[in-house]
Automatic annotation (TrEMBL):
Entry's EC annotation: 1.1.1.100
One example of a Gene Ontology biological process annotation: steroid metabolic process
PROSITE patterns found in the cross-reference section: ADH_SHORT
Coiled coil: none
Record-linked InterPro entries: NAD(P)-bd_dom_sf, Sc_DH/Rdtase_CS, SDR, SDR_fam
Protein's name according to its UniProt entry: 3-oxoacyl-[acyl-carrier-protein] reductase FabG
GO molecular function per UniProt: 3-oxoacyl-[acyl-carrier-protein] reductase (NADPH) activity
UniProt keyword annotation of GTP-binding present: no
Keyword Phosphoprotein among UniProt keywords: no
Gene3D superfamilies xrefs: NAD(P)-binding Rossmann-like Domain (3.40.50.720)
Similarity section: Belongs to the short-chain dehydrogenases/reductases (SDR) family.
Amino acid sequence: MNKKTALVTGASRGIGKAIATLFAENDYNVLINYNNSEKEALELYNDLKSRGLSVDTYKADVSKKEEVNFMVNYCIGRFESIDVLVNNAGISRTNLFTDISYEEWSEVINTNLNSVFFTTQKALQYMIPQMSGKIINISSIWGMVGGSYEVHYSTSKAAIIGMTKALAKELGPSNIQVNCIAPGVIKTDMLDNISDDTLEMLKEETPLMRLGTPNDIAQCALFLASSNSDFLTGQIISPNGGFVIV
């Protein structure tokens, strides 16, 4: 049986890296998308390739439609299909709402939200004719409940949740499942600027008494990509250790 192919955006570090690694280890072809983190992407590629896994890399700014189109076309040319799309690329910015410039607002919306629109729309050119596909969008708990000093970030992540629900209804008849993962506080480099005292406080506020790991999110993504989730669509799954319960 032919391998299935997963395209993971923002896959050079953190959650994206963990997803790309786990999928490759579970017999997927994986296209590792990156933009600025070429060194990290190539290190990941070399590690996975040395283990005999089927991977490739592609540099693209997923906030730009033309670059996304070239990337998806490359994925099809390289692996002959696109079965799973993981929209993971994103940035985090913190600022008082009244101090957010239009440029900062646009940067967050373009990177976090427009990238999902561009990549999903292009991937569907291939998924709809084949009448199958899995789209996994990465949001955040702050998209569910809002985060103070992160209005632009929270807005972009909330919009991804709305897109997931609406698109799941539209694509159901094409046998394409669209789901969303809304991670809690995850130990990635996004936490580098947070003090140890604050991190300890976040742990104490989490019923499971620990922060999440990128692998916690990767395992959820692998389930959503599998046939075990074929009757699951339009859902928001939040691995957050109980930090947010709604």
